[in-house]
UniProtKB/TrEMBL annotation:
Gene Ontology cellular component terms for the protein in this record: mitochondrion
Keywords, alphabetical: ATP-binding, Cytokinin biosynthesis, Nucleotide-binding, Transferase
Superkingdom assignment: Eukaryota
Gene: LOC111489858
Protein name stated in the entry: Adenylate isopentenyltransferase-like
GO biological process terms on file: cytokinin biosynthetic process; tRNA modification
Native species: Cucurbita maxima
GO molecular function, one term: ATP binding
Family per record: Belongs to the IPP transferase family.
Length: 306
């Protein structure tokens, strides 16, 4: 059984999966859908927040138009009102999806996600009572129940930080505040317990804003009351700050996997991301992505499936 796993974006010298709120990976899920389209994949998500239905912009779910008619699994499949999705439940659901994809003669592609969920999915000796990232004496499994290829798309630290900031801005422009305003419920906003979608980055940061200023979506950031505008900017600042904090935590987790012996195949996408951040024309950005990321990735995967 062969499973291909794509790790989006990291720090040079380390690897990172960059968020649970979903602020970095949709574009690259789309790109890898294009890269590996000819292998007729079944793609499944491994990010906790994206597995829950709702808040599609905030959790960065890939729209149908970008999926190239390839089946995508565990994107909004779980009811957010049913409580937390445990690592054990994820392992079980994901294994069933992988078996289904393989039974049709296709190659499962696992994109992004929670490091805890990835470990739970592939570990041969998974123990749900042990948090391998929370306690140093708990051993990271180095025996896998699948034959895995881990592809790590790496980006230098300063460039990654700039890209994450830009990605948040793009999500805001796409209607993230309006989506969060519709999700906001003053009756539960004061609850200290955060489960499901309420753990997604963006929800808590804007709850304080909505508590003080009745949500009216995009109007908040342009003109009007300077107090409201200041509060909006503070909420955005917190989203970017918390996204970066989560990135650094995930860096530590991925470092733990590498030290345990996980073989992550590194592909450097720094030049391609710099082009996205700069003023390069779309054609030039595409050329850099093809040369620096696509060709290297295809070589790795071809060796894996040979």
């Amino acid at each position: 059984v062969r499973v291909f796993h794509f790790l989006p974006f990291g720090r040079r010298g380390k690897s990172a999966e960059t968020r649970e709120g979903g602020h970095s990976g949709k574009r690259h899920t789309r790109e890898f859908t294009t890269i590996f389209h000819n292998w007729i994949l079944g793609i499944r998500n491994s990010l906790c927040a994206r597995s829950l239905s709702g808040l599609d912009i905030t959790t960065n779910k890939l729209p149908l138009s970008d999926r190239r008619a390839i089946p995508h699994h565990l994107l909004g499949d779980f009811d957010p009102l049913a409580g937390e999705v445990s690592a054990s439940a994820f392992r079980s659901h994901a294994a069933a999806v992988i078996s289904s994809v393989i039974s049709r003669g296709n190659l499962p592609l696992v994109v992004g996600g929670s490091n805890s969920f990835i470990h739970a999915l592939v570990a041969a000796d998974f123990d749900p009572t042990h948090d391998v990232f929370g306690y140093s004496r708990n051993r990271v499994s180095t025996e896998f129940r699948y034959r895995c290829c881990f592809l790590w798309v790496d980006v230098s630290f300063p460039v990654l930080k700039r890209y994450l900031s830009k990605r948040v801005d793009e999500m805001l422009e796409a209607g993230m505040v309006r989506e969060l305003a519709e999700f906001y419920d003053p009756e539960i906003a004061d609850s200290e317990t955060r489960v499901g979608l309420r753990k997604a980055i963006g929800v808590a940061e804007f709850e304080e804003f909505f508590r003080r200023h009745h949500p009216k979506g995009r109007e908040y950031k342009e003109g009007g009351d300077p107090v409201v505008a200041s509060a909006y900017k503070e909420a955005v600042r917190k989203i970017k700050e918390n996204t970066w904090k989560l990135t650094k935590r995930q860096l530590g987790k991925i470092g733990r996997l590498r030290r345990a012996g996980w073989d992550l195949k590194r592909v450097d996408a720094t030049a391609a991301v710099v082009a996205v951040l700069g003023s390069e024309a779309a054609e030039k950005r595409s050329e850099i992505w093809e040369a620096e990321v696509v060709e290297a990735s295809v070589k790795i995967v071809k060796r894996f499936i040979a």
